[in-house]
TrEMBL record:
This is Uncharacterized protein. Pfam families: Lipoprotein_18.
């Protein structure tokens, strides 16, 4: 008996952010100290909390050395520098904030910076996609971790993942835009306050979601899905725009949260590894203005398994 694939429809959006709206008090990013001049041939577009940079007249090959130089100027080293894949990833950059403690601890913190200090780490991943009409789309994603003190006396610490921060993404995307501009802006950009993050709320996806229909063209939806995959608990392995296929690996939350087996069980039966399974997401143009997204199997048929539905539910949360 054929299963009817449940669908969620995402309304159309013009998705364009002009400089004037970007500097408007309702924006997510913190205010700039001074108004910046608009740049010809470049603009930031958005959907919800997702933003990307549109460069109309330069190819990825032309932009690559400039983007590499930008990260160096920002104090980052690159751990991934692959023009062939269109992927660039920075190393982790740490910042520290002193905890409000007594005089003795504050004194120790100055002498031993790692003793009573909590830290944050951020790194950034950039993906360049060619535009069908020429030019390049630049997508920028942030990943963060924060240091948590543990132990009875808080004598040790561990790093834990933090949610994606749209404020930092907007900040660095704007810095990058002006770094790539024809007349490179020398104006200082106001520092963002991470606590001011205010990502747009995500609508809950139906539990039986098996496909998502967009009232938007393929070009935009392809970007949306790639952006959402970068933000979620996926490892993006390959992308084939011509076929409209993203290949990802995904570890289900049940496996991530499963309790560890006991010591003797691990000794005699071995430690069970959390294996990430491979999935294919298909982005297909239905008409010039509508696009369908689904998880498909090796035969190209829509996958309606619980795992596939959870994958699309995660994407739907990011895409609203």
């Amino acid at each position: 008996m054929a299963q009817t694939a449940a669908r969620q429809r995402v309304p159309a959006s013009d998705g364009v952010v002009t400089l004037s709206s970007y500097l408007h008090p309702e924006r997510i990013a913190a205010p700039l100290e001074q108004a910046l001049e608009p740049l010809v041939g470049m603009r930031i577009e958005r959907k919800g909390s997702m933003r990307w940079l549109v460069v109309e007249q330069q190819t990825a090959q032309q932009l690559w050395p400039q983007i590499r130089q930008f990260w160096q100027e920002q104090g980052f080293s690159l751990t991934l520098d692959s023009p062939e894949q269109g992927l660039m990833e920075t190393d982790w950059k740490e910042t520290y904030a002193k905890i409000d403690q007594g005089m003795i601890r504050n004194t120790l913190a100055k002498a031993l910076p790692s003793a009573y200090v909590t830290g944050e780490r951020n790194r950034y991943r950039v993906r360049l996609e060619p535009r069908p009409q020429g030019g390049t789309h630049i997508l920028l994603n942030q990943q963060g971790m924060h240091e948590v003190l543990i132990g009875r006396n808080k004598e040790t610490s561990e790093w834990q993942n933090t949610p994606n921060d749209p404020v930092l993404e907007a900040e660095y995307l704007q810095r990058l835009m002006y770094a790539l501009g024809p007349n490179k802006s020398k104006q200082a950009v106001a520092a963002q306050n991470p606590s001011a993050s205010a990502a747009q709320p995500s609508a809950a996806a139906p539990a039986s979601l098996s496909q998502i229909d967009f009232a938007e063209p393929f070009e935009r939806v392809w970007l949306y899905v790639g952006y959402a995959l970068e933000r979620s608990n996926f490892t993006l392995e390959t992308s084939n725009r011509a076929q409209g296929i993203y290949t990802v690996r995904y570890v289900e939350s049940a496996a991530l949260n499963a309790p560890q087996s006991g010591f003797w069980s691990q000794v005699f039966h071995g430690k069970k590894e959390k294996v990430a399974k491979q999935y294919k997401l298909r982005v297909r143009a239905m008409t010039q203005t509508t696009t369908n997204v689904a998880v498909v199997n090796e035969d190209g048929e829509v996958d309606v398994s619980p795992a596939a539905q959870r994958i699309l539910a995660l994407l739907a949360d990011q895409l609203h």
